[in-house]
Structure formats: structure tokens, C-alpha cells
Amino acid sequence: MRTSQPYDERYATCSYTHAWLRIMGESLDPDEVTCLLEVTPTEIQRSGERLSPETDNVHQYSGWFLSTKGVLTSLDARHHLDWILERVGDKHREFAALRDRGYLLDACCRWDSKSGEGGPTLSPLQMLGFAQLGIELWFDIYFDDRD
To answer: How many Cβ atoms are within 10 Å of 67's Cβ, its own excluded?
Structure first.
């Protein structure tokens, strides 16, 4: 799935962006999700595992994540969202099965504003792609320090 307009890799109002797909649940088995989707995640977490070696706190939920962090350098959020949709956009039945199991399914795009003006763009095909998968898309927006 691609946007109808060319990507703007140097998106003028953005200083940083990446996107991720998140599937989470207490009883979720990340390996089972990988087999079902036939997609290798960029990260997983298992319920009960320590958050980091420095803490005794543990993950409450298992998770399966597919992220563009460290994969794409584009400042155009559409590029990041398309990357995710290119990997899972045809998995309608699989996502319905995961949703039926009660797992949290969503996608997020971190978007850092360079000046506090403008914002990310979504294409109609992306909106349709996430809608057909039954996945909500949300934005985590930050503002660069301004003088």
C-alpha cells in the first residue's frame, strides 16, 4: 500500500518520526503472533520478564511490536505507516482472530514538531488500510524546545 503523493522525506515541519504496530495481552504468546502473521517483529516482551536489568519491575503484559524506529529515517509519517501496512495490510483474518482473543491492537506514530506548526499527513489509502484491519491509529506528538 502506497500513498498517492510522493513522500516528502525532509518534511519541513517535522524533526523526527517513527511508527509502530502494537499487539498486547496478558496471555499473548509473541511467538504465536509471529507464526500467525508470518511477520518477524522488531521487538517482543513477555509478561513477568523484568523491564530492564536495573529494576525488579516486570512487564504486566506480553507484547509483539513492529516498528520503523532505526529502520527508516524519513520525516514523512506516511512513509513509516506504509512500511507497516506493506507488511501486515493483507492480514484481515489474522487481525480479526487476534482481536477475538481480546488482545489490544493499535498503531502509533511518534511525531516531533520542529516549530509547533503543521502536522503529520495521512493518505486515504492508509486510513482505509488501518480501518480494514480494525486497528486504531494514534499520534504521540512532541514539540522541540523553542527559544
So the answer is: 20
